[in-house]
Write a structure and sequence with these properties.
Layout (H helix, E strand, L loop, with lengths): L11 H5 L3 E7 L2 H6 L5 H4 L5 E5 L4 H10 L8 E5 L3 E2 L4 H15 L5 E3 L2 E3 L4 E2 L2 E3 L4 E3 L7 E6 L3 E5 L16 H11 L4 E3 L4 E3 L9 H13 L6 E2 L4 E2 L4 H12 L1 H7 L7 H8 L11
Parallel strand pairs: 1-2, 1-3, 5-12, 8-13
Antiparallel strand pairs: 3-11, 4-13, 5-11, 6-7, 6-10, 8-9, 10-12, 14-15
């Protein structure tokens, strides 16, 4: 059984210059090296990275990563997909966004690049190769969310959260962890943290997604409906059926929009104007 660390407030020193660490679940080293490991903050070797391979679920992988010796002295744990690229200056921007969040909510739990706000609208911005577009409206300041896209989430280590290892597979954990935080009286936020998600095309929501969806639906029934970046979690699961049918109707149109994930992520960063996202003095 995983021990839950005691919750502690975010101290002033960590708010100014929190120590960063990255955890990633990997099943394709080529994708990892082509994307996440090329991020300047990781290529420089200044930020520790824990690569977890062979885990049966994202929750298991991420808990293992958090418990690794490399993460022992980290203040902010960045959980990132292997196909994510973080532009130049992203680490400085994250520290700024974390300080902005702490100024609003000293006991905050998580930050994300993309989440669904309470008005059910997406907050970003991120580039997604699977749909060939920037998604999410940049929030002027960190904004509370009800779920995350799992591409990248940042946890304040002192908040005491753990991922639920009873959640199967590699879907819906971005919704589950936000609700875990809410159940403990903590809030999760989305902030303007531009990033490249060099993901492949997703034809439809398969049985693995459905298994995770129904787990979350049963677990958080008292909090439904919940909106995720992919579909609504409804009490009887009818929203999932509607999303599957909608995906089938739009399959060819969505396929035509997708961009190749094999392309250099710097190409997409330049396309979006995100080669360097170092915060300016005005911020």
């Amino acid at each position: 059984m995983n021990e839950r660390p005691a919750r502690e407030p975010l101290d002033a020193a960590a708010a100014k210059a929190p120590r960063l660490g990255v955890v990633t679940a990997c099943n394709d080293r080529a994708t990892l090296e082509r994307n996440l490991m090329r991020s300047p903050m990781l290529a420089a070797g200044d930020v520790p990275v824990e690569i977890v391979e062979g885990a049966p679920s994202a929750a298991v992988a991420y808990n293992r990563g958090m418990d690794a010796p490399a993460m022992a002295e980290v203040d902010l744990v960045i959980f990132a997909h292997q196909d994510v690229f973080l532009p130049q200056g992203w680490d400085a921007l994250l520290r700024l966004r974390a300080a902005q969040t702490a100024a609003r909510d000293p006991d905050w739990a998580m930050l994300g690049c993309y989440g669904v706000a309470m008005d059910v609208m997406g907050r970003g911005p991120v580039w997604s190769s699977s749909i060939g577009a920037i998604v999410g409206r940049p929030p002027p300041e960190p904004e509370p969310v009800q779920s995350y896209d799992e591409m990248l989430m940042v946890m304040r280590r002192g908040c005491g959260l753990r991922f639920d290892e009873s959640l199967p597979g590699f879907h819906m954990y971005g919704t589950d962890i936000v609700q875990e935080a809410a159940a403990r009286g903590l809030r999760c936020y989305a902030a303007a943290l531009p990033a490249i998600h060099n993901d492949g095309f997703h034809p439809n929501l398969g049985p693995d997604f459905a298994a995770a969806y129904h787990h979350v639906r049963r677990k958080w029934r008292a909090r439904l409906p919940l909106w995720t970046p992919v579909t609504k979690v409804s009490p009887w699961g009818l929203a999932l059926r509607r999303s599957v049918r909608a995906n089938l109707r739009t399959l060819e149109a969505r396929r035509a929009m997708a961009q190749p994930p094999e392309r250099d992520p710097l190409f997409y960063a330049e396309l979006c104007g995100w080669l360097d996202v170092t915060p300016s003095a005005a911020e």
